[in-house]
Amino acid sequence: MLNSEQAEPLYIQLKKAVQSAIANGTFNPGDKIPTEIELSANYNVSRITVRKAIEELVSEGYLTKRQGKGTFVNAHKIGRKIEHIISFTAACRANGLSSHSAITERKKIKADQETAERLQIQQGEPVLYIQRKRYAGERPLMLENNYYPFERFSFLMEESLEGSVYELLRDRYQIDPNQPGETVLQITLADEQQAKLLEIPIGQPLFYMNTIIYDQHSQPVHVGKQYIIGDRYQFTL
């Protein structure tokens, strides 16, 4: 129960109580939380206090208000710093979530001019294209499209790639993808194929991240073109 004698304002205490209920699974992603009237009665506080707590939780991304339907718990967002090299697996782990991957495409293709220039190879040379659907918990979160110089990374044709490729490269092949090159982050809308693979509606906002990653010797590892569900991921600078 909230304590009016504490120095901490009641709306902050209520806010923390709702955050705790989300963290411990009392309220799960997608759940509708009690109404203002119900929360006011449950915690013995005014509706003004409830409204202020809920407004802050909405602004911080914990909750979403839906007109005429109520207030709902948002899916947990995965956070990472855009300027740091951290694998998807490590980002999920840091945010308390399990992760796994499913390969949707893996094939040798010819490098177009842009990819060839970024990988420091000749146009038309073979590259290894790997598309994976990345899961955070049990839900797909990212559609990963990576392009590797085939001559150097052909061994990835035989790997399962269910977990972190970066960890695999470091642990088994002594290749450390630790240097980001130019990275462009944009907002796009899911097309039909992306929506089907990510199990979302067509037109849902996605982060599109286009990047190049280098190893410890400043050699290109891969060009990455990633599509990430926007309302479940956040970048910080």
From TrEMBL:
Keywords for this protein: DNA-binding, Transcription, Transcription regulation
InterPro entries, A to Z: Bact_HTH_transcr_reg (IPR050679), Chorismate_lyase_/UTRA_dom_sf (IPR028978), Tscrpt_reg_HTH_GntR (IPR000524), UTRA (IPR011663), WH-like_DNA-bd_sf (IPR036388), WH_DNA-bd_sf (IPR036390)
CDD domains noted in UniProt: WHTH_GntR
GO molecular function: DNA binding; DNA-binding transcription factor activity
Listed SMART domains: HTH_GNTR, UTRA
BP term (GO), one: negative regulation of DNA-templated transcription
Domain HTH gntR-type: start-end pairs: 8-76
PROSITE patterns in alphabetical order: HTH_GNTR
Annotated protein name in UniProt: GntR family transcriptional regulator
